[in-house]
Structures are given as C-alpha cells and as structure tokens.
Design brief:
With 543 residues, this protein is mainly β. It is 0% helix and 46% strand. Among the domains are: 84 residues; 126 residues, Methylamine Dehydrogenase, Chain H, CATH 2.130.10.120; 69 residues, Immunoglobulin-like (Sandwich), CATH 2.60.40. Strands 1-41-40-43-44 form a five-stranded antiparallel beta sheet, with no helix packed on it.
C-alpha cells in the first residue's frame, strides 16, 4: 500500500462553460457604472446577455442567450435585432404566475418590453406601447413597472401589463407645471398588506394640488387607488422614501422629513400608523440607515448615530434599536454593507480599521459579531462582493492580496473560507461576477486573461452524488470510524478522498483490502474511485 498526502486542490473544478465569443473577444460585456452583466435563473437554466462577434460586424451583437451548464446547451436564444447592432437585453424579471421572464431590449432605437418562456418562438415583444421599461414587480395578476408610453405625452410613469391584451400607464404628474412630460419615476415597489407601495415624484400643481416632491405612494392596481399615501416632508422638497422592507407585519423604510434628517420610518398601512421610528442621530443630520435586512426576528441595518460612525445595528420585534457592535471602535466607521442572510446568520462586508474591508458575520448572540477571516492579511482589503448562497455555503469574490479578485467559499468560519480557483493565474484577477444558482450549479462570468470575459460554473461535489445513487462500487462500513472497504467487480486504479469544500486530502494509488482514514476528523467526505472504465464518487461519513 502507498498512502500519499497531497496538496489541496479542487475536486469539482471551476470550469469554463463555453467560450461564447471565441478568441480574446468578450462573450459577456460589462455595462453601466457598476460594470455588471445580469444572469437570471430560469427553468433549470440561466438567461443572460451574450456577445457574438466583433461589435459592428454583420451577425454580431449582444443578444439573449441561454445555458444549462453544458457546452452544447449554451446558445443564442434569439437575435432580437438582426444585423450588426445589439438589442442588449437586460432588467430581467421572473413572473411566477406565467413562468416567464420579462425584460427590456432594443429592437430598434428605443428599448421595448419583451418576455420569454425559454424558447425561441416564445421570446416575443409584449407590446410596442412602452418605452424603456424597468423596475418590475408582480402584483394583482399583472406586472407593474416604470416606462414611458407611446400613446400619452408623459415621462417615466407607473405602467402595467397582464402580458397579453391589457396594458396601461397611470400618469401621476398629469398636472405638473412643466407639462405632461415630467416624470414621477416610481421606484422601490414593495407589496405590503395587499397593496403596492412605492416612492415617486408627486409634482402636480394646479388649482387644487401643489407639488409634493418625491414621497410615499400606494396603489391597489387601479388609477383611482394609485397616488400619494403620505407627504412626509411637507412642501416641494420631498422625503425620498427608500429601502422598503417588510418586517413583523409592518413596512419599514428610510425617509427625510426635513427636520430629523434621513431616519427609519414605519407604517402599518394607515396614515395615523405612519411615522418616524426613532431619531437615531439627533438633530437634522440623520443617521442615514441602509442595508435593511431581515434575519430571523431582527431587522439589521447600518447607520451613523453621530458618535460611533457608520456601524451595525438591529431592531427587535418590539422596535427597540440596538447598536450591535462598534466594529471600528470610536468615531471611525466600519461601513458595513452587502448584507445577506444565511440561515439565522448575517454575513456582510466591513472594515474594522485594522484588517481592511473583510468578511464578517453576526449570529444574533451577545458576542456574535466577528470577522470570519482576514482574507487579505494585514491592513489590505479583500473587499468581498457578489455574495450568493449555494448548498448552504456562502460564495463570493474577494482579493487575497496574491491572486487578485477570485472565487471564494465560506461555511462561516476561518478554516472553511478559501479560494476555490485562481481563474486568472497569478496576481491578475479573474474577477467573477453575477454569481447565480440554477439547477444546483453555481454560474458566474469571469475573465481568465486569455479568452476574455465568458460564462463559468462551479459544481459543489456534495451535490454531484446522492446516497440513493445506483452504485457500481459500494463502500462499507459507512458510516465508519477508522477504515472502509470497497465492494466491486473489476479493478481499481486509485482512490481519492475529498472534504466538503472539494479539496483532495488523501490519495491511495492502488487497490487495497482496507482504506485507513483514522487520521481524518469526523464529518462528511467524498470518495472518488477511479478505474479504467469509469469514475464514481460516493459519500462517506467518518464517525
């Protein structure tokens, strides 16, 4: 027998799905100020904007693509603007009622509303009525969104469709002093207590109304029930409601009433039940709460009380607000951001003033706020971003100071927080973005430094096998304490053992009667058995 300890490396390799735009050209192009390119999960596949050919050449452009994670299953779904120009599909939104994706695209010079059922024939323009649709939400058996309207002289307004024959827009500023082209530009659509709440510019001004500025709106789906809910900042300046979050049967949001600055407000759906929750930063400066995120029976957020800087807070169901931890102690700010709920634990990015911006967690206990790991050791920033949950683990991009921005995974502690793959080898960055899970596959796009930004995937080995698999090989005993045997017909070339993060930790380079794992910690492992004709992976429990 030869037992070999090997360096850690990936079992379920991060792999390129397809070089969509062969050569050095980008198969997926980054757009906008944030430099993002959307991916949306749909019907065990993903939809995204892919690029074919060099922009401006015949048969090229950025068009709607689909992928199931395989080479042959990654293709152009439909060319919505044939020729050398792009339709540039984006603003993807899933409508559960009809199991369709709604999005905007440019079949010509103006963006229009489209939908798809995942097929070429089922990818169609919904109507020519709307211009530049965005900010979608599903409500009252319809899709509501922002758009202009070809039939009415108005700006960006409150629009809707049922996906077939019923379409319309409600002009919230039909009496605006500058004419009907002034936009109410609704946003922050949130369904609460059977109604649709939003923020909008209520700048109507005639003999019976005055301009209100950007305020809190409400709709029950009809024109007569769509309008101003409450004028929080009296006058034309507006309170600019934002960060709408439903918690404990109430709707919380941030607003500036012109006296207390931007603070957290609450409504129970009634005018008299709508008010300032607490002046966290006394006076007119405001605490500027952001990142409102529900985790269990708490509402977490970041805010600045004027003394401790921008730090992590939570609110209980009895509406008590608590500074959870002054992460960057004193007047300095840790500026927590990118909140995500994993079970009953909050993960986020913060800077304690010593270790730079790193991955942190909060589990709700008294001493439960901690840095998960100093990924970029010392004062450097790893700047974790693009958080996504996959098989109960947190995946994200980060920079360890050596390999550039690459794909990482964490199970909530320092030991399990590791780089999965150096996609762009060396100090250059693979820069994975738009992490999205579909059909038990983690999709993202990245640049390996040689073929441009393309579509990649990662398959967690824990999802690649099940205990109900029909096995050519059988492990016994399983669970086991010190060793296991393999029952089979034929010859075994080698046996490899991997941990739950896909790292190989042991290798047996020949078949033996019994495989000793006495030195391994208790837990779940994966045994990869290699023979001349097949390879099989089986779960193993070490007691």
């Amino acid at each position: 027998m030869a037992l070999i300890m090997v360096p850690l490396f990936n079992f379920a390799q991060v792999t390129l799905v397809k070089d969509i735009n062969p050569g050095v050209y980008q198969g997926i192009r980054l757009e906008g100020v944030r430099g993002d390119a959307e991916i949306i999960a749909f019907q065990n596949q993903i939809l995204f904007q892919g690029t074919i050919g060099r922009e401006g050449s015949v048969g090229s452009g950025r068009e709607l693509h689909v992928s199931d994670g395989t080479l042959n299953g990654t293709n152009l779904l439909k060319d919505l603007r044939p020729g050398s120009l792009s339709s540039t599909p984006k603003n993807f939104f899933y409508r559960s009622l009809t199991d369709e994706i709604y999005f905007s695209a440019s079949p010509g010079s103006i963006r229009k509303l489209f939908k798809t059922d995942g097929t070429n024939a089922g990818t169609v323009m919904v109507t020519t009525l709307f211009n530049d649709p965005r900010r979608f939400i599903e409500y009252d058996n319809r899709v509501f969104f922002n758009s202009g309207n070809n039939n009415v002289a108005m700006g960006t307004e409150f629009s809707f469709t049922n996906g077939s024959l019923l379409h319309g827009s409600y002009d919230l500023n039909q009496y605006a002093p500058s004419g009907n082209s002034q936009s109410s530009d609704p946003g922050n659509y949130t369904v609460y207590n059977g109604s649709l709440y939003f923020s909008a510019n209520f700048n109507n001004s005639n003999s019976t109304t005055t301009a209100k500025g950007r305020e809190l709106g409400i709709s029950d789906g009809t024109f007569l029930t769509t309008g101003l809910f409450r004028d929080i900042n009296l006058g034309a300046n507006g309170s600019d409601p934002n960060h709408f979050t439903v918690f404990n049967n109430k709707l919380y949001f941030t607003a500036d009433n012109g006296t207390n600055g931007r603070e957290i407000w609450v409504t129970d759906g009634f005018i008299l039940g709508t008010g300032l929750l607490q002046d966290l930063n006394p006076g007119s400066n405001g605490s500027n709460p952001q990142n409102l995120t529900v985790v269990g029976n708490r509402l977490y957020f970041s805010a600045d009380n004027g003394t401790n800087g921008n730090e992590l807070y939570y609110m209980t169901t009895s509406e008590n607000i608590v500074l959870y931890k002054d992460i960057n102690s004193g007047a300095g700010s840790s500026s927590p951001t990118k909140f995500i709920n994993r079970g009953n634990t909050l993960f986020f990015s913060a800077d304690n003033g010593i270790n730079g911006r790193e991955l942190w967690s909060a589990d709700g206990t008294v001493f439960g706020v901690n840095m998960v790991k100093d990924i970029n050791p010392g004062a450097g920033n790893s700047d974790p971003a693009y958080f996504e949950l996959y098989n109960n683990k947190l995946y994200f991009s980060a920079n360890n100071g050596t390999n550039g921005i690459e794909l990482f995974v964490s199970n909530g502690n320092a030991q399990s927080t590791t780089m999965l793959e150096d996609i762009n080898p060396g100090p250059a960055s693979g820069d994975p973005r738009a992490l999205t899970v579909s059909n038990n596959i983690l999709f993202f796009h990245a640049d390996n430094g040689s073929i441009g930004r393309e579509l990649w995937k990662y398959l967690d080995p824990a999802l690649s096998v099940t205990q109900n698999d029909i096995e050519k090989f059988q492990l016994y005993p399983n669970p086991t304490k010190n060793s296991f045997n393999i029952a089979h017909n034929g010859l075994i070339d080698s046996v490899e053992i991997y941990d739950i993060n896909g790292k190989k930790i042991l290798q047996f380079d020949e078949e033996i009667p019994s495989y000793n794992i006495e030195k391994l910690d208790a837990g779940m492992y994966f045994v990869k058995i290699n023979s001349a004709s097949t390879t099989q992976t089986i779960k193993l429990i070490k007691k």
